[in-house]
Task: inverse folding
């Protein structure tokens, strides 16, 4: 729904592009704006586009895939990547974008309360979306299909810290 959605305002168009960048690259929000159009590379056989960045957190080299949905969104934006905005503004506006896409069903999620006890909470889907949603979705969607060392390199994690990357795996038992 997000890919198909055509936001009316420039602000929400930019929010959509940031969200798609997060979802289809696995970047942290702090690294999205390190991807530069002039630094996107193609494999020789033209089957894969990617960028290489050094992450803000730890200066780790990260291989950022430029998958087709993101490539299409960049083309739709005049071959420009998203314009930088604050995390606070993005987190507020991404909820509006997702709500505008019609993703308004109530969902149940678990969280750890202030006392360290796991609880359920019910909210509208868009209320759960934040700048970290894309990274979590990227890893969850690929963890069973891409070798862990490759996925770790793509997301800037180390292979010796498997618990960290598996912590992103939010596949529901339902």
Result:
């Amino acid at each position: 729904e997000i890919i198909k959605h055509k936001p009316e305002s420039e602000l929400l168009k930019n929010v959509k592009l940031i969200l798609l960048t997060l979802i289809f690259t696995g970047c942290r929000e702090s690294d999205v704006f390190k991807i530069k159009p002039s630094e996107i590379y193609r494999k020789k056989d033209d089957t894969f586009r990617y960028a290489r960045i050094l992450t803000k957190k730890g200066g780790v080299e990260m291989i950022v895939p430029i998958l087709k949905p993101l490539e299409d969104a960049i083309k739709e934006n005049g071959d420009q990547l998203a314009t930088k905005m604050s995390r606070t503004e993005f987190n507020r506006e991404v909820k509006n974008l997702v709500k505008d896409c019609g993703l308004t069903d109530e969902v149940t999620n678990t969280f750890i309360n202030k006392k360290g006890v796991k609880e359920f909470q019910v909210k509208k889907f868009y209320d759960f979306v934040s700048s970290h949603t894309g990274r979590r979705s990227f890893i969850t969607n690929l963890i069973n299909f891409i070798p862990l060392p490759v996925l770790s390199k793509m997301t800037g994690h180390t292979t010796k810290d498997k618990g960290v990357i598996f912590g992103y795996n939010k596949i529901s038992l339902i």
